[in-house]
Amino acid sequence: MPVSTLKEVVDRAFAERYGVPAINIVNDLTMEAVLAGAVEARSPVIVQTSVKTVKALGSNVLASMWTSMTAGIEVPVVLHLDHCPDRAVITECLDRGWNSVLFDASVLPVEENQRQTIEVVREARAHGAHVEGEIEAITGVEDGIGSDTESARQNLDVALRFIEETGVDVFAPAIGNAHGVYRHEPVLDFQRVSDIVDEHPIPIALHGGSGMTQAQFSDLIRRGCAKVNISTALKITFMKSSLAFLEEAEAKDRWDPPALFAHVHTDVAALTRDLARQFGSAGKA
C-alpha cells in the first residue's frame, strides 16, 4: 500500500467517527516502532515530526528514513510536520516529501494568520500535500514552540471564516486542551467541536491528547476529532523504557545496545497499538 494523504486518512475517520493516532517520533527507532505498531493493529497512522526533530536530524535524513521504512507498508501512513511557524521549514519539508503540514501562525493576528495560511495551502497543493490550520495557540510548550499562557479563543464566526477562506483540510481549535503532562483532568469545551463541525463539516485535530481520559477521547472523536495528537506519551514511553532497561543492565553489568533498542521498540509499538484500539482506528486499514 503506498503512502497515503492526510485527507484520505482523516476524511474516512471523520465520516466513520474514529480517531487516527498522530504520533510525534523523535528518531529512527521511534519511527520504525510506531509504523510497526500501526501494522500490527491494522490501523492508519500519522507520523509527526516537530521542527526541533527536523533541525536535529535533518530533513534529508528523516525523508530517507521515511522512504525506506514505508516501502511496501501495509497500512495507510502520512508524514506530517507538526506546529511549524517557520515558512522556510515548511517549504524545506514539502520539498523533501512531507505530505502534510501544520502551519502554526497562531501568535499572529487572525487576519495575517489567514493570509499566510492561504499561501501555505497553495504551496502544499503544488506538492500534492495537505494543511492543518489553527487560529489559537494550544497551551503548553512542545519542543520549544508554544506558550504556557492560554490564548483567547476566537468566536465561531471567526473560526468558520478562517476554515472557509483558507481551504485548510483539518482544523485545530483550542478547547481547553494543552501540550505536556496534565496536572489535573482537563476541563474541555466539547461543544466547541460540535459547533464548528455542525456549521462546516471538517475533520478536527485534537492536540494535547496525552493524559486525556478514555471518556474524553470517545466523546471528542464522536463529535469529529479525526486526528488525535500524541507527543508527550511517546516521549515518556521512550525514556522510561530506556531507563528501565539501563537500570537492569547496570545491575547485571551487561551492556547490549541492540537489546536496548529491541526493548524500547517493543514498548513504543505497544503504545501505538493501544492508541489505535483506544481511538477506534484498529482494524480500519
TrEMBL record:
The cofactor remark states: Binds 2 Zn(2+) ions per subunit. One is catalytic and the other provides a structural contribution.
SUPFAM superfamilies for this protein = Aldolase (SSF51569)
Residues bound to Zn(2+) 2 are: 104, 134
Keyword Metal-binding recorded: yes
Any single GO molecular-function term of the entry would be: zinc ion binding
Residue numbers binding dihydroxyacetone phosphate: 180, 208-210, 229-232
User: Organism's domain of life?
Assistant: Bacteria
Q: Which UniProt keywords apply?
A: Metal-binding, Zinc
The GO biological-process annotations, alphabetized, read as:
carbohydrate metabolic process
The active site of this protein is located at 82
What are the names of the required cofactors? Zn(2+)
Database matches in InterPro entries: Aldolase_TIM, Class_II_FBP_aldolase, FBA_II
Q: Does the keyword Zinc apply?
A: yes
Q: Which residues does the annotation say bind Zn(2+) 1? A: 83, 179, 207
Pfam families, from UniProt?
A: F_bP_aldolase
- Protein name from the UniProt record: Class II fructose-bisphosphate aldolase
Which organism does this sequence originate in?
A: Cryobacterium melibiosiphilum
